[in-house]
Specification:
Chain B: Belongs to the metallo-dependent hydrolases superfamily. NagA family. Chain B: Keywords: Hydrolase, Signal. Chain B: Pfam families: Amidohydro_1. Chain B: This is Amidohydrolase. Chain B: It comes from Shewanella electrodiphila. The complex is a heterodimer of chains A (about 425) and B (about 475). Chain A is α/β, with parallel strands linked by helices and about 425 residues long. Helices cover about 30% and strands about 20% of the residues of chain A. Chain A has helices at about 1-15, 120-125, 180-205, 210, 215-225, 240-250, 265-275, 300-305, 325-330, 335-345, 345-350, 395-405; strands spanning about 25-35, 40-50, 55-60, 65-70, 75-80, 80-85, 130-135, 145-150, 150-155, 160-165, 170, 230-235, 255-260, 275-280, 310, 365-370, 380-385, 390. In chain A, the strands form 3 sheets. In chain A, strands 1, 2, 3, 4, 5, 16, 17 and 18 form an 8-stranded mixed β-sheet that branches. Chain A has a 6-stranded mixed β-sheet with strand order 8-11-12-13-14-15, with helices on both faces. Chain B is α/β, with parallel strands linked by helices and about 475 residues long. Chain B has a domain at about 105-410: TIM Barrel (Alpha-Beta Barrel). Chain B is built from 12 helices and 16 strands. Chain B has helices spanning about 5-20, 85-90, 150-155, 205-215, 220-250, 260-270, 285-295, 315-320, 345-350, 370-380, 390, 400-405, and strands at about 50-55, 65-70, 75-80, 90-95, 100-105, 105-110, 160-165, 170-180, 195-200, 275-280, 305, 325, 355-360, 420-425, 435-440, 445. In chain B, the strands form 2 sheets. In chain B, strands 1, 2, 3, 4, 5, 14, 15 and 16 form an 8-stranded mixed β-sheet that branches. In chain B, strands 6-7-8-9-10-11-12-13 form an 8-stranded mixed β-sheet, sandwiched between helices. In chain B, a hairpin with a 5-residue loop joins strand 1 and strand 2. The longest helix of chain B is centred in the middle third of the chain and has 30 residues, at about 220-250. Residues about 1-20 of chain B have low confidence and may be disordered. The interface of A and B includes residues 286, 287, 332 and 378 of A.
Chain lengths: ~425, ~475
């Protein structure tokens, strides 16, 4: 009984000393090298102040905060943002019962938020790589329309989903059975029909057709045609990319290319049309006849040409933690360091319309404090925050390692 | 068993008859040609070359600062600081100041050439998924030397690689060790005198490909074990038949020749210790059984590939002399890859007499085995290990050579070894490091600064 009282006192004292952030505590990180991913660029010996999950000051004259963390020269970056991966949708790739990425019946309404599992073991593992947020994409079904993307925070909390029905995802290009023509034709026809319907509805008054409530699919296409909803198009070959550029111009789409192995061949056109490219920087083999121009220097070349590049580990769940190494390799192969940093922070935010990805006043405090260059293998995470809340980078992998590193006379099953 | 049972009977009968007639004339002795597709590898043009003033990781656990490496007649002649002027006279000098030098990188697990790029259906030649035991197939017969990925791997410092069949079968066939020097033929790349490997596979793949895929055995892990055991029982009988033939012939008899069987030729090679096992095996309990399987049939269980759970049985692996070839961080793609830890290689390595190897099994990460190693080293050091560059380089050089049975030839920068050497522009365990020059047998096969030494596949010519 006595013991119980004591611990109660201890708890209340602890609570008094380290109150939770919900009580409008302010945190300051000082003495950091800050990659802001804004026009401000890189700040040295700088500080940032966080309140209520938001960044309220970057490098102010005076630092005044409840909790002060001395970075001792460490590197502070925006949390990295994953793009077009399957985090939370798949636990064990080949175990169909643990996989919700695909379904034969999937169409453009296919919504990953209905399956997203914030407790997936792949999520803390992703945090090991400095990822704080992600665009999760469906794998889709039998048609080109794979469904819509969602935005999630990688806290592992039940309320991780930030936005749903965020962008429409279509998969084009080479087909194992049949022709790529049908895919492209389907996309053109859908957009064309919907646009005609919209035009008709706008010009004809009180038409019976126009009165009918639009279907979910029609609403999605409406949003795509109005440019509110990005259209993410997977395509590799330059001929497909050129078709898509025409489509963007014809329908005034907010078009984003995914993978786009040949993008480098048409880089100028892409830059001119303002089409971002979400790509895997590590592709450098002619994996198919659609991707003969894959190269490690493509990310740098596209960036140099003025294309907004997003680096990603598309489709994956378990390997997305390696995003920072992709960025490092892109730099090793010609991409400017700041461009590489933007490609996994602010460019992702801009491409997918997220309010994140920058260390700037008003932005959510998604931040990672690194021991050194965040793209280097020798660097590790010292602290990370999502919306100002400190996150752990521990996963079950650490528990397995520690169990088998611990000496014991009993079987390992007793080491917990 | 059924395949050669008749010939066993014939032998028995003929031996019995011969017993009464020692003076009978002998037919010419039948021997099996163990090397019917011999290497025709030719060293590329080379000179005596001196690399000077670099940080050298020897692959034997040493790091030598400001050191020189001398290559003469395709061999390492000397490594050290300030080699004598007499020794290096007449050498082509490469100034390697501020650069790092390592042995050529060795990948023990590759499917380049058998699953090439582009992945055309017509080039999918890596897995003979027609029978759980296809010990009769040889990966070398599938190699497309024009796979552009060979060139990319060379640009990542890879000088030697083992090409293995895929893992669909319990016993998938022979692997072949190649030198990563461009050639129009497989034989032109074949590593002279390297032993053959035999690909085996545990766990999910064989039972999935047959039980689930084709509704034939094996359907389960116990079916897997039965399959290997059955195969080695037959192979043991086959070996016995040939041993008896050879012994009888040597005794002056004229025995009936046993019926030749390609599948058992390979397994006989395993039982004779000439062919090394390379076993795709993820899980601790399965590796432990494969060790016992080797003991049951009197062969060595060889190298475990992937060995996701190697860290759980590190002691057992070291005690039994098994190498384990692993990734740093692949996981979650199947149940048997669920218990990955990034420090696996370091934990397997930490045991006395261990043989830890980092492998790729990938046409992309084969280009960055130095970076794969860096991931492990740095993650392990963050969790209590004290690994050094000079130590971990062995995971992709000397330990890999040991796994392939070629450690007497390559994998370290020691006098007399093949001059397989990489010059890196910086510490090779940096994300920014690049191989600048690569030498195989003392001949330059890649130079990042010189287009003349940048090979291009036939396939890539004229592609837009």
């Amino acid at each position: 009984m006595k013991k119980f009282k004591k611990s109660l006192v201890a708890i209340s004292m602890l609570a008094g000393l380290v109150p939770s952030l919900s009580q409008a505590e302010t945190i300051a990180v000082i003495n950091a090298k800050i990659y802001t991913s804004t026009d401000t660029g890189v700040l040295t010996n700088a500080s940032v102040i966080v309140e209520d999950g938001k960044i309220i000051a970057v490098n102010p004259e005076m630092v005044n905060a409840d909790i002060i963390i001395d970075a001792k020269g460490g590197v502070l970056t925006p949390g990295f943002i994953g793009a077009m991966n399957s985090l939370g949708l798949v636990e064990v790739g080949q175990e169909k019962m643990t996989r919700d990425t695909n379904d034969k019946a999937a169409d453009m309404t296919f919504d990953p938020s209905l399956a997203f599992n914030p407790k997936s073991t792949a999520i803390p593992f992703a945090r090991k790589g400095g990822l704080t947020r992600s665009i999760v994409a469906p794998g889709g079904g039998e048609t080109i329309f794979s469904g819509q993307t969602i935005e999630v925070e990688l806290t592992g909390d039940w309320d991780s989903i930030v936005a749903t029905e965020q962008a429409l995802f279509v998969a084009l290009g080479a087909k194992h059975d049949g022709s790529r023509i049908i895919g492209m034709q389907n996309l053109i026809n859908k957009l064309d029909e919907r646009q005609k319907a919209l035009t008709k509805a706008a010009t004809k008054k009180a038409d019976k057709e126009a009165d009918k409530a639009p279907t979910k699919e029609e609403l999605i296409l409406n949003a795509v045609l109005s440019g509110e909803k990005p259209l993410i198009a997977y395509a590799d070959r330059a001929s497909d990319i050129l078709q898509l550029i025409k489509l963007k111009q014809r329908f005034k789409l907010d078009l984003v290319l995914l993978e786009a192995a040949d993008a480098v061949v048409v880089a100028e056109q892409l830059a001119q049309a303002g089409i971002p490219v979400v790509m895997d920087a590590m592709r450098n083999l002619p994996e198919s006849f659609d991707s003969l121009n894959n190269s490690l220097d493509n990310a740098g070349k596209l960036s140099k040409a003025g294309v907004q590049v997003v680096l990603a580990v598309p489709g994956d769940a378990h390997g997305v933690y390696g995003l920072r190494y992709s960025a490092g390799n892109a730099v090793a192969n010609g991409m400017k360091y700041d461009d590489a940093m933007a490609s996994i922070t602010s460019n992702v935010a801009d491409t997918f319309h997220l309010d994140a990805g920058r260390i700037a006043v008003g932005k959510p405090a998604d931040m990672v404090l690194w021991s050194g260059d965040p793209f280097e293998y020798s660097s590790h995470i010292q602290k990370m925050w999502i919306n100002g809340e400190e996150q752990s980078t521990e996963s079950r992998h650490d528990e397995l390692r520690d169990r088998y590193m611990t000496q014991s006379s009993m079987p390992k099953a007793y080491t917990k | 068993m059924a395949k050669f049972a008749p010939s066993l009977v014939v032998i028995a009968v003929s031996t019995a008859l011969l017993g009464c007639n020692q003076t009978q004339q002998q037919d010419p002795q039948v021997t099996i040609n163990k090397n019917p597709y011999p290497s025709t590898y030719q060293v590329l043009p080379r000179t005596t070359t001196l690399l000077t003033n670099a940080t050298v990781l020897t692959g034997t656990g040493e790091k030598i600062e400001q050191a020189d490496v001398l290559m003469v007649d395709g061999k390492i002649k000397a490594v050290g600081a300030q080699l004598s002027a007499e020794l290096v006279k007449g050498a082509t000098v490469v100034d390697a100041t501020d650069k790092w030098i390592t042995p050529g990188i060795i990948d023990v697990h590759s499917h380049l050439g058998v699953y090439p790029s582009p992945s055309a259906d017509a080039h999918s030649d890596g897995n003979e998924v027609t029978n759980p035991n296809t010990a009769e197939v040889w990966a070398e017969h599938s190699v497309w030397p024009q796979d552009p990925a060979f060139n990319r791997a060379r640009e990542g410092g890879v000088t030697t690689l083992q090409i293995l069949p895929g893992s669909a079968n319990l016993i998938g066939g022979r692997g072949v060790t190649l030198k990563n020097a461009p050639s129009t033929t497989m034989q032109g790349m074949k590593f002279p005198d390297a032993p053959y490997g035999l690909k085996m596979a545990c766990g999910e793949n064989p039972k999935g490909a047959y039980g689930r895929g084709q509704k034939v055995a094996p359907m389960t892990r116990m079916g897997n074990m039965a399959g290997y055991r059955q195969a080695f029982i037959e192979a043991t009988e086959y070996k016995r038949a040939w041993d008896k033939y050879d012994a009888d012939y040597a005794a002056g008899l004229n025995p009936e020749v046993p019926q030749r069987d390609l599948t058992n030729d390979t397994l006989k090679g395993v039982l004779e210790g000439e062919i090394l096992i390379h076993n795709h095996c993820y899980k601790a309990e399965e590796m432990a059984m494969m060790v016992d399987l080797g003991k049951e049939f009197n062969y060595h269980a060889g190298t475990f590939h992937h060995a996701i759970e190697g860290y759980k049985i590190a002691e057992l692996l070291a005690e039994n002399g098994n190498c384990a070839a692993m990734w740093p961080d692949w996981w979650g793609f199947k149940m048997e890859a669920n218990d990955m830890v990034i420090e696996n290689v370091a934990m397997v390595d930490a045991v006395k007499n261990s043989c830890a190897v980092v492998h790729s099994d990938s046409s992309t990460t084969i280009q960055r085995l130095n970076q794969e190693t860096a991931k492990i080293m740095h993650s392990a050091n963050q969790h209590g290990f004290e690994l050094t560059e000079e130590h971990v380089i062995s995971w992709i050089t000397s330990n890999a050579a040991k796994s392939l049975g070629i450690a007497d030839k390559t994998g370290s920068l020691e006098a007399g070894k093949n001059a397989d050497v990489v010059i890196w522009n910086s510490n090779p365990f940096s994300v920014y490091a690049k191989a600048e020059q690569v030498f195989i047998d003392g001949a330059k096969v890649f130079d990042r600064q010189d287009d003349k030494y940048q090979a291009k596949s036939d396939f890539m010519l004229g592609q837009k």
